[in-house]
Amino acid sequence: MKKDNEDILISIRNSTCKFCPKGVGEAELKGTLCPFPSLIESFNNEIWKSEDIQLVKERATPLMVKEGDWCIFKFRIKKDSE
After folding, report:
1. Angle at 41 between CA 73 and CA 36, to 5 degrees
2. How far apart, in whole angstroms, are the C-alpha atoms of residue 60 and residue 82?
3. Is the distance from CB of 27 to CB of 21 less than 8 angstroms?
4. Helix or strand (DSSP H, E) at 11
5. Is residue 28 classed as helix, strand or coil in its secondary structure?
6. Which 8-state DSSP code applies to residue 53?
7. 8 Å CB contact between 60 and 42
8. Among candidates 23, 53, 20, 56, which has minimal Cα distance to 36?
9. What is the 3-state secondary structure (H, E, C) of 60-77?
10. pLDDT digit string (tens) for 28-72?
11. Residue 73 or residue 51, greater confidence
12. What is the reported pTM?
């Protein structure tokens, strides 16, 4: 996990992940079917009874980026004024 201003970057080593349909079953699928980004967002917000952390969803940008052996996804911390 790494913090960058209001963003939190979370990385998962894809060679050890047993949930990825591409990594485990070598499925040829477009996009991502990774359950972790939504699970982390929902878990955090339910535990703290807030919606302070949101998965960054930007047009024409994938929810998850692969860099080497890592899958990286980004969350944004909402400011009090938002």
Report:
1. 55
2. 24
3. yes
4. strand 7-13
5. coil
6. E
7. no
8. 20
9. CCCCEEEECCEEEEEEEE
10. 666 667 888 889 999 988 998 888 888 888 888 788 888 998 999
11. 73
12. 0.72
